[in-house]
Amino acid sequence: MAESNVSVSVDVGTIYLGGKEHRVKTACGVVSVIVYGDREKPALITYPDLALNHMSCFQGLFFCPEAASLLLHNFCIYHISPPGHELGAGPIFPNDSVPSADDLADQILEVLNFFGLGAVMCMGVTAGAYILTLFAMKHRERVAGLILVSPLCKAPSWSEWFYNRVVSNLLYFYGMCGVEVRGNVEIPESDIAQACRRLLDERQSVNVMRFLDAIDRRPDISSGLKKLKCRTLIFIGDQSPFYSEAVHMAANLDRGYCALVEVQACGSMVTEEQPHAMLVPMEYFLMGYGLYRPSCFTESPRSPLSPSCISPELLSPESMGLKLKPIKTRVSA
C-alpha cells in the first residue's frame, strides 16, 4: 500500500466513453487514471508521450474493433496521465516541486498500490515508454510485460537537450500557441497533424513544461536493461526520429525476452498512424501469457487476426507493412 503520510482521494463522477476517472493523490501530486473494463481481469496500464493523454495517444489503437477484442477482452485498462495532462486539466500550482523521471516512475507504484494491483502489463509511447521502463527496472516484481512504442533509454543528446530548451522557452513565454505543428506546400498538413495541433492547444503550457523538464533530465538506463527479465515488445516506425534509440534499446535487452517490430511508412506515433500493424505482433506476444482473442470476434472481415477470412500469404509481416528485425549479438569464440 502507499505510505501512510500520503492521502488518497477518488472522484468517480467523470465518465469517458465507458471508463471512469479516478483522481489519485500521490506524494508528487494528483494523478488522473481512466479505468476501462472489468477490474477482475489482469491489468494493462498505459502512459502517453509528452503533451498527450490517453485519448490523443492511444485512441487510434483502442478504437480498432480488433484491438478491443484482443485487449479489452483480456485486460482491464488503466490509462495513467502524467500530472496535468488529463482532459480538462488546469495549470499546476507554480510553487509545486517539479518531479523527476524517478518520481514519475514511483507515482506508478502508488497508483498500482491504490488499486490493489499486482504484476501488470505496461504500454507506453516515447516519454511514457521511458517512464514505464524505468518503473520496470525499479520494481521488477510489479511488471509482467512491456509493450513499448518508439521508446527512449539513453540520456538526451546535446541536440535534443538544446531543442528541448528552445521548446521550454517557447512554452514559458508564449504558451502552447508558440509550439506549432504545420504542413507546407510540398507536404500538406495531415489529419494527425491537425488533430495534434488541436490537442496541443488544449494543454496547459506549465504542465507540459514540467513533464518536458523531467524527460530532459532523464538518466541513461541502457546499462540496466539486461537485468529486465519480463517479455518486451518494441514497435518503431521506420521514419521515426527515435529509430536508432529503439534499435539500441532492443540490442541492450536480453534477446531471449525482447522482440523489435519495425513498421514501414510510419513515424513515432504507431498507435495513431498504423494501429492495425500492432495487432498481429501483440497477439503473438500475448499468447505467451495464455491470452487470446475471443472466438466470437474472429468473423470480422477487417481483422488481420482472422486466418479464415484472409489468405495466409496476406498474413506475412511484409504484406502488413512490418519488418521483423533480428537482434544481432556478438558471440565470443
Describe the structure.
It is a single chain. Helix content is 33%, strand content 17%. It is of the alpha/beta class and 333 residues long. The relative contact order is 0.13.
Summarize this entry quickly:
The protein is 33% helix and 17% strand.
Please specify the SSE layout and strand pairing.
Layout (H helix, E strand, L loop, with lengths): L14 E2 L2 E8 L2 E8 L6 E5 L6 H9 L2 H10 L1 E5 L20 H15 L4 E6 L1 H12 L4 E7 L8 H17 L16 H12 L2 H12 L14 E7 L5 H10 L5 E6 L6 H4 L5 H9 L34 E4 L8
Parallel strand pairs: 4-5, 4-6, 6-7, 7-8, 8-9
Antiparallel strand pairs: 1-2, 2-3, 3-5, 9-10
The proportion of residues in beta strands is 15-25%
Mean pLDDT: 77
Largest sheet: 10 strands, mixed
How many runs of DSSP E, i.e. beta strands?
10
Provide the helix percentage: 25-40%
Molecular shape = globular
Radius of gyration: 19 Å
Q: Report the order of strands and helices.
A: EEEEHHEHEHEHHHEHEHHE
* Uncertain segments: 1-16, 171-187, 297-321, 326-333
Give the helix/strand class.
Answer: alpha/beta
Lateral arrangement of strands in the main beta sheet: 1-2-3-5-4-6-7-8-9-10
Measure the end-to-end span. Answer: 49 Å
Determine the number of helices (DSSP H or I, runs of at least 4 residues).
Answer: 10
Transmembrane segments: 114-137
Keywords: Membrane, Transmembrane, Transmembrane helix
Pfam families: Ndr
Protein name: Pollen-specific protein SF21
